[in-house]
Amino acid sequence: MAAAFGDEEIDNDDYYSLLNVRREATQDELKASYRRLCMLYHPDKHRDPELKHQAERLFNLVHQAYEVLSDPQSRAIYDIYGKRGLEVEGWEVVERKRTPAEIREEFERLQREREERRLQQRTNPKGTISVGVDATDLFDRYDEEYEDMPGGGFPQIEINRMHISQSIEAPLTSRDTAILSGSLSTQNGNGGGTINLALRRVTSSKGWGEVELGAGDLHGPLFGMKIFRNLTPRCFVTTQCGLQFSSRGIRPGLTTVLARHLDKNTMGYLQWRWGTQSAMNTSIVRDTKTSHFTFALQLGIPHSFMMLSYQYKFQDEDQTRLKGSVKTGFFGTVVEYGAERKISQHSILGATVSVGVPQGVSLKIKLNRASQTYFFPIHLTDQLLPSAVFYATVAPILFYLAMHRLIIKPYLNAQKEHELEKQRENSATDIAKKKQESEAAVRLMQESVRRIIEAEEARMGLIIVNAWYGKFVTDNSKKHERAKVIDVTVPLQCLVKDSKLILTEASKVSLGSMTPVLERKRVSKCFTSLEESYTRCCLETQSP
């Protein structure tokens, strides 16, 4: 009931709690509770102006809760996303009588569209930092040939290449976007950079075009064009051509990709590339809720290969994924396996072990932080050494477990506590307002409670003498904590009907997580502790 507000934050928009019904309540149960509360809070039953105003407010809240829960579609949306789901624009065009899964997909689609509209109005930076590490000295130094080489005992680990790239998008008009990007690369002491400017224009709802200009000290000036076009609702084509100017002359290039939806979760791609590395490629990509599968076949100069990869998606809050792939061609064979996991709200950490002939063994660590990517390929050995494979597999797991336990988890817990404390401070005014509303609700119940007590006395029924709800401090080690207890005698007595008190499963507003039934001449004290919060409800009852 509304009287159960305390010093902690309470959600006044918990419609089930407001109507004092369980989440699985039927339409008849909703209607019965709604009628009962309307009789209790009807403004015409109160003459005092202040009580009349409070009764009108509570009456409107009850009416709003019933309107949402009595409509099957609104109730399904509310059950999944709460009140914020009802506030999302676009539900009015959604077909009614959809399942919860379909409603969830529609909500996510509307959210994506809203985010896309928001992104069109601001800059969208993207960046990548890649640092290549040569750690072959850790394993190759144990070879017999290596022992004869001068240079000592401690293994040498060095950075042999680095790449940094960054791009930003600036919407010029509703149809035009400018994209500025640049990159710097260095490998074994030699390096250079490039800068590119692209102008993209949306020509229609079916396509867009892009013109690109670039310059750099590695390949010379660049002029390119790119066109995207939806041929049918299930098929699209992308064509990109470019002219690279260098000291050796002009090198043209052309790439065309044709893609088609084979079914709801499967895409097929055909790619043809002509230029310095001409090739034809076909691939099939299937992406579902629990897995991601890719098959690719390429015929070209100088590389031809076949690739097969599979990724399993765990349905947990950390978005854990396990992946593996096999790639074989003229260059040799490479087997990769790894995992990735969400470590914070905007960060995903992944590690992949690559074992190949003649490439050797490598460990690739990748961190995605919002729109920034940090990539660290570590080359361990040029040979297929079991020890290198073992350490490349076990070391990242042990390192992640230690980091998660000692750094990540304590940091997230501290951050969560800080956010809760900040939320409590920001909501102090709202809590005080809700507390006043609960006290007004108790005053509105006084007349009804008096009649209920008279009826229970006449039938020798159930009368609640005292009832408290909150956090009781019983441990001597926690005497410094302040007990947070409120008197809920009047609201509970108001719930008594036919000498029975039934508390439905709801939030703390309705003394949630407790479903006792107190029958005639039955006394119950201190029952049902809420887990890990020492929250109890103590009742004292009497039978006249």
TrEMBL record:
Regarding the membrane, this protein is recorded as:
Peripheral membrane protein
Cited Pfam families = DnaJ (PF00226), DnaJ-like_C11_C (PF11875), DNAJC11_beta-barrel (PF22774)
Is Mitochondrion among the key words of this record?
yes
Report keywords, A-Z. Acetylation, Chaperone, Coiled coil, Membrane, Mitochondrion, Mitochondrion outer membrane, Phosphoprotein
**Primary subcellular site in the record, as a coarse category:** mitochondrion
Segments forming domain J:
14-82
Task: Name one cellular component (GO) term.
Answer: mitochondrial outer membrane
Name the domain of life. Eukaryota
Q: Where in the cell is it found?
A: Mitochondrion outer membrane
The cross-references to InterPro entries, in alphabetical order and at most eight, read:
DnaJ-like_C11_C (IPR024586), DnaJ_domain (IPR001623), DnaJ_domain_CS (IPR018253), DNAJC11-like_beta-barrel (IPR055225), J_dom_sf (IPR036869), Mito_inner_membrane_organizer (IPR052243)
Query: What are the GO BP annotations of this UniProt entry?
Result: cristae formation
Role noted for this protein: Required for mitochondrial inner membrane organization. Seems to function through its association with the MICOS complex and the mitochondrial outer membrane sorting assembly machinery (SAM) complex.
**What is this protein called in UniProt?**
DnaJ homolog subfamily C member 11
